[in-house]
């Protein structure tokens, strides 16, 4: 690598996308992104956490669009019909992205790290990858105290040029994120350094999990 090769992606080159387009079935069908986390709607909480890490922001939601619009950034519903899954959010995000990179973050993982974009960006450049995906510790630690790592496909830094590929993949009926990312140079980025919060990627699928996460957030 010569000395002129950049090792970091500039904040302004990244658009952050909050994924809030799901059905929330495990929460009884309520709109997850609008549920309060310590007094702030989850989607707004994610937006504020991502704001210092990116240049532009947008939200992907399929219900209660006016409520999401009140958070002050563009809101885009899925173009694919019938809750096709988070890849539908990736698709509309890439369609609307005007920067060279898109960073996706789900609305239901409020403790994600403040250096998420920086570390995914560094790894993407270092490996000359098209996609950088989070690899995060599982909730249950192994006997030796180390937690196994598991990919978190909804936390992805993508090159915006992947739009054409995703259009093709979804037009052919593809719906699984990891099936699509497997077609591209993808680097998994481990968030298990000393000092990394072990629960940074815990997400809330039920209201009970959401309340437990609120407790974890308060103890930080
Ligand atoms: N755009 C879009 N996003 C989705 C869709 N389904 C899930 N997501 C998002 O993907 C992320 C992870 O999904 P889940 O944790 O399964 O959330 P969910 O689908 O709302 O909840 P369940 O219905 O309980 O599975 C969340 O940020 C969701 O908002 C969808 O059909 N369209
Ligand atoms: Mg789901």
From TrEMBL:
Gene3D superfamilies: Spore Coat Polysaccharide Biosynthesis Protein SpsA, Chain A (3.90.550.10). One of its GO terms (molecular function) is nucleotidyltransferase activity. It is found in: Cytoplasm. Monomer. InterPro entries: MobA-like_NTP_Trfase, Molybde_CF_guanTrfase, Nucleotide-diphossugar_trans. Belongs to the MobA family. This is Molybdenum cofactor guanylyltransferase. GTP binds at residues 19-21, 32, 60, 78, 108. Keywords: Cytoplasm, GTP-binding, Magnesium, Metal-binding, Molybdenum cofactor biosynthesis, Nucleotide-binding, Nucleotidyltransferase, Transferase. It catalyses: Mo-molybdopterin + GTP + H(+) = Mo-molybdopterin guanine dinucleotide + diphosphate. The keyword Kinase does not apply. Mg(2+) binds at residue 108. Its EC number is 2.7.7.77. Residues 16-184 form the MobA-like NTP transferase domain. Its cofactor is Mg(2+). It comes from the Bacteria. The N-terminal domain determines nucleotide recognition and specific binding, while the C-terminal domain determines the specific binding to the target protein. Transfers a GMP moiety from GTP to Mo-molybdopterin (Mo-MPT) cofactor (Moco or molybdenum cofactor) to form Mo-molybdopterin guanine dinucleotide (Mo-MGD) cofactor. Its main location: cytoplasm.
